[in-house]
Design brief:
Elements lengths: L3 H40 L6 E8 L2 E6 L2 E7 L8 H16 L3 E2 L16 E6 L2 E9 L10 E2 L5 E5 L2 E9 L5 H17 L17 E5 L12 E9 L3
Antiparallel strand pairs: 1-2, 2-9, 3-6, 3-8, 4-7, 5-6, 5-10, 9-11, 10-11
Pfam families: SOUL
Organism: Pseudo-nitzschia australis
Family: Belongs to the HEBP family.
Length: 237
């Protein structure tokens, strides 16, 4: 009888271990299932219309975008604060506008929940603060889109423009990764003998870097997340 107690202890410990491992596996599976669902739902969202003008290889291409509307706010920190910090600082303000912190211009003038879109846009330059924006669905115009209640949120139409874009997967890119991808784009443009037009109406366009995120940074697995870094070829953004 004396030897039974150690046996029971080992038996219980073994099964507790199996239960814990099994529970962790179930949680991991549930997390990835939720991530895949979030990815598939994001893929259904409206994005700005564009035409691929030229493929440069290695995930890079030249795109010509049609005009579209955005809701935009500017990060309060200096330009050196970086893209990720700017995104965290402004996301709730923009999300609040999209999800109803606004005044409808049609109907009875109450607040209006708007459809989600992609991508989340960030753009910054060497001497300017980072701007963060959400794309507004094509069913709206500047005359019909709900009016923001937050003064920080501005509405504007992005004119037609041409970008060189590099697409890659993974977690939201660090500022170092963004700079690396920008340098890749610039090298590819030189190799393809593509000249970026100097924008006399918007001198910042020459140094502007855009970062686009198409999936949430928490639920969607990094391997499925689509990120893009872009530079302006022609026009303004």
């Amino acid at each position: 009888m004396i030897g039974i107690q150690p046996f029971l202890q080992r038996f219980v410990a073994t099964w507790l271990g199996k239960i814990l491992v099994g529970g962790a596996a179930v949680l991991t599976s549930a997390r990835y299932a939720g991530g895949i669902y979030a990815f598939l739902e994001a893929e259904k969202l409206e994005t700005p219309n564009y035409t691929v003008v030229q493929r440069l290889g290695n995930g890079m291409e030249i795109r010509r975008y049609e005009p579209y509307l955005i809701a935009e706010t500017t990060a309060e920190d200096e330009a050196s604060a970086g893209f990720q910090k700017a995104g965290r600082q402004t996301f709730r303000t923009l999300a609040g506008y999209i999800f109803g912190k606004n005044k409808a211009r049609r109907g009875n003038g109450t607040n209006e929940k708007m459809a989600m879109t992609t991508p989340v846009r960030l753009d910054g330059g060497e001497k300017k603060k980072t701007r963060v924006s959400f794309v507004i669905g094509s069913g709206y115009t500047l005359k019909t889109v709900p009016k923001p209640l937050e003064k920080k949120v501005k509405l504007r139409q992005v004119p037609a423009h041409t970008l060189a874009v590099r697409t890659f997967s993974g977690k939201p890119p660090s500022d170092e990764r963004v700079q690396k991808e920008r340098e890749r784009l610039q090298a590819a443009l030189v190799k393809a003998d593509i000249v970026r037009a100097r924008n006399n109406n918007n001198a910042d366009a020459d140094t502007t870097t855009l970062v686009y995120g198409y999936h949430d940074p928490v639920v969607t697995p990094n391997i499925l997340r689509r990120n893009e870094v872009a530079v302006v070829i022609e026009g303004s953004v």
